[in-house]
Amino acid sequence: MIKNFIEKSWLLIVASLVFGLLLAGTNEKLGPMIKKQQALKFSKLAGNMIEGADKFEIVSEEPVKIKSAKGKDIEVKSLKKGVDKDGKILGWAFEAVGSGFADKIKLVIAVDAKFETIKGFGVLLSNETPGFGDKIGKPDHKFVTQFAGTPAEDLTLSKIGDYGKVDTEIVAISGATITSNAVVSIFNTYIGQVKAALKEKGLL
Amino acid sequence: MASDKKISLGNTFFAGIWKENPVFALLLGMCPTLAVTTTVGAALTMGASVIFVLICSNIVISMMRNLLKPHLRILMFTLTISTFVTIADLSLKAFLPDMSTKLGPFIPLIIVNCLIICRAEACASKNGIVISIVDAIGNGLGFTLALSILAAIRELLSTGEILGFTILANTETGGWYTPWAGMAMPVGAFVTLGLLLGVVNLINKKKA
User: Fold this and answer.
1) Model confidence over B16-75: pLDDT tens digits?
2) What single-letter DSSP state applies at residue B181?
3) How far is B30 from chain A, CA to nearest CA, in Å?
4) CB contact under 8 A, A131 and B75
């Protein structure tokens, strides 16, 4: 019975072992590079928004927990401070996640050192409709640039208005209201709570 | 004998590119064809990944073709293919992270791409290594070519650019061309693919 079993499946067993080892080796080799690339992307996006930042350091080992719009506990990933060469804090940046139109939207949000004005956002991951919602991924699009300089308070979305005016009223991308709304609600979920969490830790 | 072998190698290679082109003739692997052809860059990356997986899996399957038992055949194919796809996926994440996020789930989905299983079943499990490699390159190039043509048309019409070079001046930057957003969406893929298939059939009919 066992002989029969081995006879029929030895190739599969051997192949699984060999392929498994091959994958483990690849992962061992590429894993650190993938992590580095992700950290690099974060620093690049955040560095574009926080001018002069030399590097980004994790604020605390202990994860900061906030409540999502639906009341679920979520962890704020890579809450980092951007510091210049002398170690002076220039701003804060963190990853923020929320549901978009088609898929999750993952942003890097940057704010200034006092957590009073928003510096902007960059997209880490999104799968929004090409030609409409995916404009949030273009750093020089007027929807994206209007966030820079906005007070770090609750934002509202309007469908008409002036992109150039810097205030808490965010003007939507035409044809992509759901995506625009998603970005605004990610900001509203994170900004206030992250600010409170940083205050609690005595960092602000 | 030598010339016989040469002809059959050439035939195997060109069959993959035109006569048995996986996209235009066999209609295999429609999922990446429709999904990742929004830009030429994405199509080329997808094509390169498929060529890599196809060559590796064809080599491995061709080597173990005499050991394969009928009831374990598909299982072995999938195991081999998924290993190489995972390697391709990890490499893209490490070296081309932007492309990797753009292609999203479609790289892991190569595992179930019927083009690769088809080549394993139809060619690699019956032929020697050399023919299997040539077959893999031919089919892989045929697939890449088809994807690139589709992507070039769609990228040009939806943004006015190809690989970052402006061909049609976009209205957003003060030109005359209004981007055709539909071309970047699934509907654009279906329409373009349909028209291309029509053209290919027309050419084949005229030839016959």
Assistant:
1) 888 888 899 889 888 889 989 989 999 999 999 999 999 999 999 999 999 888 888 889
2) G
3) 20
4) no
Name the closest residue on chain B to residue A10, using Cα atoms.
B67
Contacts of A12 in chain B (CB under 8 A): 72, 75-76, 79
Nearest CA of chain B to the CA of A195: how many Å? 30
Chain B residues touching A127 at Cβ < 8 A = 104
Residue spans of the domains in chain B: they are 2-207
Nearest to A12 among B75, B87, B101 (CB): B75
- In angstroms, the CA A101 to CA A106 distance is 12
Is A164's Cβ below 8 Å from some Cβ in B?
Answer: no
Q: Which amino acid is at B5?
A: K
ipTM of the complex: 0.81
CA distance A108 to A149: 16
pTM: 0.82
Among residues A174, A204, A179, which one has the least CA distance to residue A191? A204
